[in-house]
Amino acid sequence: MTNHASNPARRVVVTGLGIVSPLGQNACDTWNALVEARSGTRRITLFDPAGFDSQVAGEVPDFDPAAYMDRKVARRADRATQFAFVAADEALAQSGFRPAPDDGSEVAVIVGTAIGGITTLSAEFETLYTKGPGRVSPFLMPMMLADMTSGQLSIRIGARGVNYCLVSACASGADSIGEAANIIRRGDAEVALAGGTEAPITPIVVAGFASSKALTTANDDPARASRPFDARRDGFVLAEGAAVLVLESEEHARARGATILAELAGYGATSDAYHITQPDERGEGAARAMQMALRQAGLQPDEIDYLNAHGTSTPMNDRLETLAIKRVFGEYAYDLPISSSKSMTGHLLGAAGAVEAAICVLALQKQIIPPTANYEVPDPDCDLDYVPNVARPARLEAVMTNSLGFGGHNSSLIFRTYRAAP
User: What's the pLDDT band for 7 if we cut at 50, 70, 90?
Assistant: First the structure.
């Protein structure tokens, strides 16, 4: 392993990305649906939702793991891990990178999740109650563990560097990307697969979120159920999927002639230290995360050309995130294009920040801002430019994405167009 001194100025770049989402099983299909403002929300099919307050979700349609991996591998991997395998394979293929067969010691894998293998755990509880303890799968424990996605992914590709799962609720995916960049900056890896994955659409999760009044009850109109920043928003749409980015040190990427998609220029993470589920009423924690990311990127607020908001479609989040944006950007907040991709993907919990990070990289590549779908009735407390309903061509040099989570977690990432130093 190359021994690098810790260097905060060491540049980290993105050379590949992969997405599995309710809008498609690859980045291209997901992006095309986003710019067309198509919704991935439908009535739940993974179980019978009759009797549940919320009966809609963002499921990955027609997902067949056997189309992507050996059936034996698929049987021993939770649905969340399967999603991550597909996203990672796409990201690696785009990057053109594979660890050397005999040495992957400079390759890290950091994949976050909020809930882990809840699909497997739920199914095995059913087995325990209906068939007895002797019928519980011997693979239950490794399949349900939150870290098993990163562990299995490292085995799958031969990555022998830093390997762990980061759990910070709905900020997990963003934090995984930010911390992976820090690992590269301090010289502990040259390459990192970083992102998030989630497969939470199970009866217990839907019932739990519904009991806390976090989910939408717009069951009669699934495609319009997620409506961030709209005055009629009533809760988020639970969703599943994954996204993985290939991050590299600039030196490593350039030495192998990789196509660089973007630079990961800034990362900030804070805690509200306020409430287990509610954001800080002043938006102070989220504001500090954005300010930290700006400082690390060496950018002024008015140099951000687009902000991909956390934008969950809950009454409280959207109002307080808007307040936090105003704290950071001042008057420029009214000129800053902001959108929430959750209006179309739903809320992928621990994978949300990773999916939205990938969307930001795609926005830089395509020079298009995806819209906030279903924005129809303005809310006086949410009075910024949310790019309503129609994608917008724009000159984008630097973009920010926010991720906020239960427990008071706040994370912000900044991506910018890569330009080599003169």
Answer: low
Q: Does domain 267-416 have CATH number 3.40.47.10?
A: yes
And the tokens for 92? 């690696």
- Over 90: is that where the pLDDT of 278 sits? no
Over residues 94-103, the pLDDT tens digits come to 999 998 887 8
Which positions are annotated as active-site residues? 170, 310, 347
**Comma-separated ranges of CATH 3.40.47.10 domains in the chain:** 12-255, 267-416
Q: State the average pLDDT for the chain.
A: 95
Predicted local distance difference test score (pLDDT) of residue 276 = 80
Asked: is 12-255 a CATH 3.40.47.10 domain? The reply is yes
pLDDT in tens, 247-268: 999 999 999 999 999 999 999 9
What mean pLDDT do residues 165-176 have?
A: 96
What's the rounded mean pLDDT across residues 349-371? 98
Q: How confident is the model at residue 229 (pLDDT cuts 50, 70, 90)?
A: very high
